[in-house]
Amino acid sequence: MTLEQLRLFIAVAEREHVTAASRALNVTQSAVSAAIATLEERHGVKLFHRIGRGIRLTEAGRLFLPEARAVLARAAVAENVLEEFSGLKRGTLRVVASQTIAAYWLPVTLVAFRRAYPHVAIELAITNTEEAATRVRDGDVDLGIVEAIVDDPALAQWPVGTDRLTIIQADPCLPAMVDTHWLRAASWVMREPGSGTRATLEDSLRQLGIDPADLNVSLVLPSNEGVRTAIEAGAGIGALSSLVVAPALQAGTLHAVPQALGTRSFYGLRHKERYRSPAAEALLGLVARRGT
């Protein structure tokens, strides 16, 4: 039984005339007759009395008519759901982002998305870069935005923005010169392994000729805010996104150590083989326009 067969049956039942139904639906009379015959033969019932040149519904036809109408109505509702989904009038966008991005970089774009598509719900999960990649690979989310390159052949990744790490300390008396000896001797407050911020810092230190294993690490904390607060309390130095430390630098509770670490990229992540929804496409469009 097909929706087209139901549609043709309803048209004939409402008009009690095969030719009139075929004209109304712009199909051939033989197609209408074949659809009715298929329904009757498949289920072993007669849906119409053939009386001369006219037709009338049988008892089975009368019972079947409201059910057929209900099925077509539900099909129309289902079709409307897909149209609304593709037109971004409903649905849910699931995004995972690493901490710096979720707290300081992405919200502006999410606000723009919400204004443009108010009927699409947004679910944002916040974790470190390594865990974010796992969620994208496992299909738990539609998109990820992270702070470092991810080594996973199942994932497509591309740059979506840039950032800079800043070495900071609470002591306003900054060193006259920062060299590798000073960096090795300093007491460091670090993000946890798997963090994009930590991975970027370690890459930058290697470029300076410093093995991260040689650092004097006093604390390892699982959030930017934890690292920043510990440094403000005098626990040592650390490296965080310029987005994270800007308010503290302006307030004078932290001070930037004169050692450039270069810029880093933020990366979009998606599974190469999974369907990318219209909502995901729309968010990526906003992200791309932000980066231009």
Automatic annotation (TrEMBL):
<keyword id="KW-0238">DNA-binding</keyword>
<keyword id="KW-0805">Transcription regulation</keyword>
<dbReference type="GO" id="GO:0000976">
    <property type="term" value="F:transcription cis-regulatory region binding"/>
</dbReference>
<dbReference type="InterPro" id="IPR005119">
    <property type="entry name" value="LysR_subst-bd"/>
</dbReference>
<dbReference type="InterPro" id="IPR000847">
    <property type="entry name" value="LysR_HTH_N"/>
</dbReference>
<feature type="domain" description="HTH lysR-type">
    <location>
        <begin position="1"/>
        <end position="58"/>
    </location>
</feature>
<comment type="similarity">
    <text>Belongs to the LysR transcriptional regulatory family.</text>
</comment>
<dbReference type="GO" id="GO:0003700">
    <property type="term" value="F:DNA-binding transcription factor activity"/>
</dbReference>
<dbReference type="InterPro" id="IPR036388">
    <property type="entry name" value="WH-like_DNA-bd_sf"/>
</dbReference>
<protein>
    <submittedName>
        <fullName>LysR family transcriptional regulator</fullName>
    </submittedName>
</protein>
<keyword id="KW-0804">Transcription</keyword>
<dbReference type="Pfam" id="PF03466">
    <property type="entry name" value="LysR_substrate"/>
</dbReference>
<dbReference type="InterPro" id="IPR036390">
    <property type="entry name" value="WH_DNA-bd_sf"/>
</dbReference>
<dbReference type="Pfam" id="PF00126">
    <property type="entry name" value="HTH_1"/>
</dbReference>
